[in-house]
Design a protein that fits this description.
Radius of gyration of chain A: 21 Å
Helix content of chain B: 40-55%
Number of domains of chain A: 3
Structural class of chain B: alpha+beta
Largest sheet of chain B: 8 strands, antiparallel
Number of strands of chain B: 10
Order of helices and strands of chain B: EHEHHEEEHEEEHHEEHHHHHH
Largest sheet of chain A: 2 strands, antiparallel
Number of strands of chain A: 2
Distance between the termini of chain A: 12 Å
Bound molecules: zinc ion
Strand content of chain A: 5-15%
Oligomer: heterodimer
Number of helices of chain A: 7
Number of helices of chain B: 12
Structural class of chain A: mainly alpha
Strand order of the largest sheet of chain A: 1-2
Largest interface: A-B, 44 and 46 residues
Strand order of the largest sheet of chain B: 2-3-4-5-1-8-10-9
Helix content of chain A: 40-55%
């Protein structure tokens, strides 16, 4: 997630609710310091979650505005109290709120780049192979090496056919 | 008891003068169900039955023993499994349909209906994370060929707690650091580990103190890197440093304070060979010195694997299991002392 004032990654995320109005602030290190907000140090994840949970408790006004997961009925407020999500669908339902939290807890990571279940589109190795082929294809096209590009495209088509109905690659 | 309680992961392994064991664990959830905490009783029973069916057909080249933790007889067994690091304390204390599947050598353990539907771990003696990762990945592939896991292309494997999301992988290692403890240098390790986003816990996890000078270190990051890269970041940087620190501390003890060192070691042997009543804390403290003595070649009569096993066998549930009659609390310390005397001859 980016800083509200510049293109750097935000390290401070604050959600406040005043008179039923929710406002979010995301700031990079520099802008947070400029605004007089203490920048969190690299804390263990559990501690981080506990803090979020605590801040959730003190802001009781958030109750009415709390989003709810349509699959399992869990509210985001409830998640902040327990630290545990209700179902896989919660990741979609709370996507926006979770993104900042996960990014902080995972040292800035925003996307999965590890193993993929075979049914969802391939093993670890195939995923890596696809990434590499796409990069090579771009290079070949840029260098106007059309014969090489055609071969790479064939390989990619082949891999992707095996994958069907694999999910589209998310832009990282 | 169906298995021998001679855990393969307590044998001697690479770097085992400092590294007791290493573990790779995967958190997985079956698609189409809520996470355990929010599932209905029926759904929990369904997850339980589905897992049993799949795990029963899993071909790992050896048996996979299935323990239903709801059975009344499971109470004592559960404490034993917790002491052996095969289930979590949380898993033992929950009150819902849950189980654990274990190979007889205890390398593989799969918890069913813990925080996530499946928590699969591979334990290996010493430092051999690559092996542990390959093995747990192979098991994951086999389970996955029969079950759909909850997965999203952005977040990866979806877990009940977002701190596990992505790869769902947790690497952890149990380090024995008596040299740094005697050199009073252990806080430096704690700080260094924290700086590297690693968690440091005691022999029995969160909240347990560093009994026996054991420290469990694990990665915290599960998203944004491949399993192999997460392992690299974890095992390539800080672990070799800590192992080197510990060996250096032992070298200094040997070269500069050998009388002090031998006094600590042989006094421990003396007490453990003669005590008639001993609590778990004192026993672990003294066993730690004996383990140090064995690693430094000062106690040629003792074997490392025997000492490693002793750390477990002096725990309450183990003593109770070995005793022919029920043991009251105050009798535990007597049984413990007797068992240690017998083992150390
Ligand atoms: Zn900024
Ligand atoms: Zn949900």
């Amino acid at each position: 997630m980016k800083c509200d004032h510049c293109d750097k990654a935000a390290v401070v995320h604050e959600v406040t609710v005043k008179n039923g109005e929710k406002s979010e602030v995301h700031l990079c290190k520099e802008h947070a310091a400029a605004a007089g907000i203490a920048v969190p140090t690299d804390q263990p994840v559990n501690q981080l979650l506990t803090q979020l949970v605590l801040s959730g408790k003190t802001r009781s006004g958030a109750k009415a505005a709390s989003p709810t997961c349509p699959s399992c009925g869990l509210t985001f407020a409830r998640f902040r109290q327990s630290g545990t999500l209700g179902c896989p669908g919660c990741y979609d339902a709370f996507g926006r709120q979770l993104a900042g939290l996960i990014e902080r807890a995972q040292c800035g990571a925003t996307h999965h780049t590890g193993k993929t279940p075979r049914r969802a589109g391939g093993s670890i190795d195939r995923q890596r192979l696809i990434h590499r082929l796409v990069r090579e294809l771009d290079e070949a096209v840029a260098a106007e090496q059309y014969e090489r590009a055609a071969k790479l495209r064939d390989q990619l088509t082949c891999l992707e056919r095996d994958d069907a109905p694999g999910p589209a690659e998310s832009a990282g | 008891m169906k298995w021998s309680t001679n855990s393969a992961w307590l044998e001697q392994g690479p770097e085992s003068d400092v590294v007791l064991s290493c573990r790779a664990r995967l958190a997985r959830n079956i698609a189409g169900f809520p996470f355990v905490a929010r599932a209905s009783d029926n759904q929990r029973a369904e997850i339980f039955n589905l897992s049993r069916q799949v795990l029963r057909q899993l071909d790992l080249g050896q048996d996979l023993l299935w323990f239903d933790l709801r059975e009344a007889a499971a109470n004592e067994l559960m404490l034993l499994l917790v002491e052996r690091h095969l289930i979590s304390r949380h898993h033992a204390e929950m009150d819902l349909p849950r189980a654990v599947a274990i190979t007889p050598d205890e390398r593989v353990s799969i918890m069913v209906n813990e925080e996530d539907h499946l928590r699969m771990q591979f334990l290996a003696p010493g430092l051999q994370f690559e092996h542990a990762l390959l093995e747990i990945n192979r098991i994951d592939d086999k389970v996955e060929s029969r079950l759909d896991f909850a997965f999203s292309s952005r977040w990866g494997y979806l877990t009940a707690c977002p701190t596990n999301v992505g790869t769902g992988i947790r690497f952890s290692t149990m380090l024995h650091l008596p040299g740094l403890k005697l050199a009073k240098d252990i806080d430096r390790v704690r700080r260094a580990a924290k700086d590297m986003h690693l968690a440091v816990r005691g022999y029995y996890g969160e909240g347990s103190d560093s009994a026996g000078d054991f420290y469990q270190i694990s990665n915290q990051i599960t998203l944004g890197a491949s399993e192999a890269d997460i392992l690299d970041a974890f095992s390539a940087k800080i672990l070799p440093q800590i192992i080197a620190y510990e060996r250096k501390a032992r070298e200094v003890l040997v070269s500069k304070r050998s009388t002090y060192l031998d006094d600590r070691i042989f006094r421990a042997v003396g007490v453990l060979q003669s005590a008639r009543i001993i609590d778990v804390k004192e026993a672990m403290k003294l066993l730690s010195r004996i383990r140090l003595g064995v690693c430094l070649g000062r106690l040629p009569d003792f074997e490392l694997a025997t000492i490693n096993q002793l750390f477990l066998r002096i725990q309450p549930a183990h003593l109770r299991m070995m005793s022919p009659t029920p043991l009251r609390d105050e009798e535990l310390s007597i049984a413990r002392a007797a068992f240690i005397r017998k083992t150390l001859g």
